[in-house]
Amino acid sequence: MLHVENHVMEKLSMNDSGTRVGGMIWAGYALLLLFSFSLYWSLLLWAGLAALALGYYQRRQARKCGMQAEYAHAQWQVNTVWLALLLAVVGLGGIVGVAGWMGNDPAVMARLDELSAGDQPPMEMLRQFWAIPGSKALVVLMCGSTLLYLVWTLKRTLQGLLSLRQCVTPASLGSVRWLALLLAVLLQVGIPLLLL
């Protein structure tokens, strides 16, 4: 009987140590949280680089010590930073591509010059800009890539924090990940409204 109790206690403590994480993982998520708002304050880009460096360090340490939960969280943090940078590069590439195509068309450039030199009311200027070929694609790319960068980075950060609270890995959070997405949208839409 005593032997069975000891065996059960060992299993429980093993499961507990497999889901607990150290303070460095929490620090990584704090840095990611700051990094999520880097489009508002460019200085916060450094928080992303710090989170990336810390994530690589934590991943290596967790691999050495066989800490699966810490490894999963560190990998999640590293992937979050790289995904944010990839989204930024793809978004900028698309914007530059469309803007370059618009700039190579003399008719479009003439209309843009006309628009910038004019003194029409703002709504009229917007209507004329919207009529220029390529302007819709440019605006959609700018808004879409910015929103995706802001929301997806914060969503992954919140998903990691919620998974810490539930003592699971971020990838296995389940339906709670939709709560992270909802919170990310509310925060990233709410902050610009407050700043305006």
Task: Give an overview of the whole structure.
With 196 residues, the protein is an all-alpha fold. It contains 8 helices and no strands. It has helices spanning 2-19, 23-35, 45-65, 68-103, 106-117, 122-130, 135-165, 177-195. α2 (23-35) packs parallel to α4 (68-103). The protein is elongated.
SSE diagram, text form:
Elements (H helix, E strand, L loop, with lengths): L1 H18 L3 H13 L9 H21 L2 H36 L2 H12 L4 H9 L4 H31 L11 H19 L1
Rg calculated over all Cα atoms: 23 Å
Question: Class by helix and strand content?
Answer: mainly alpha
The shape is elongated
Q: What value does the average pLDDT take?
A: 82
Number of strands: 0
State the end-to-end CA separation: 68 Å
Strand content: under 5%
Number of helices: 8
Q: Give, in order, the helices and strands.
A: HHHHHHHH
The amount of helix comes to: over 70%
Query: What about the largest sheet?
Result: none
Outline the low-pLDDT stretches.
1-18
Keywords:
single chain; 196 residues; mainly alpha; 8 helices; disordered N terminus
